[in-house]
Amino acid sequence: MRWHPHGYGGRRRDPEQVKREGWQEQGVLAVSADDDRLTWPERELVRQLGEKLYGPRPSEREARHG
Q1: Fewer Cβ within 10 Å of end Cβ, the chain: N or C?
Q2: What is the DSSP letter of 31?
Q3: Predicted local distance difference test score (pLDDT) of residue 63
Q4: What is the model's pLDDT at position 64?
Q5: Residue 61: pLDDT band by 50, 70, 90 thresholds?
Q6: CA-to-CA distance for 10 and 43, rounded, in angstroms?
Q7: Where is the sequence biased in composition, kind Basic and acidic residues (predicted)?
Q8: Cβ contacts of residue 12 below 8 Å, gap of 6+?
């Protein structure tokens, strides 16, 4: 008999499915600033929101001050 703790084993969900369910069930949006499905203005908005909430990404910090 195999026993797995709750949350372990079974089928892994596709990352896109996890993001979709997070949005639909919790109102949480997980989106990459580099997502090719977004237009440039949409990606820029995502970048600006991320910087406002969490600060600049390390790679952007280096590019601005380097």
Answers
A1: N
A2: -
A3: 67
A4: 62
A5: low
A6: 35
A7: 11-23
A8: none
8: left (phi over 0), alpha (psi -120 to 50) or beta: beta
In whole angstroms, give the CA distance from residue 45 to residue 61: 18
pTM (two decimals) = 0.68
Tokens, residue 18: 């996890």
Closest CA relative to residue 44, chosen from 1, 14, 35, 24: 35
Residue spans per domain, the chain? 15-65
Spatial separation of the C-alpha atoms in residues 17 and 22, rounded to whole Å: 8
Which pLDDT tens digit goes with each residue over 3-27? 777 777 778 889 999 999 999 999 9
Q: What element of type H or E holds 58?
A: helix 58-65
For the chain, how many residues are written?
Answer: 66
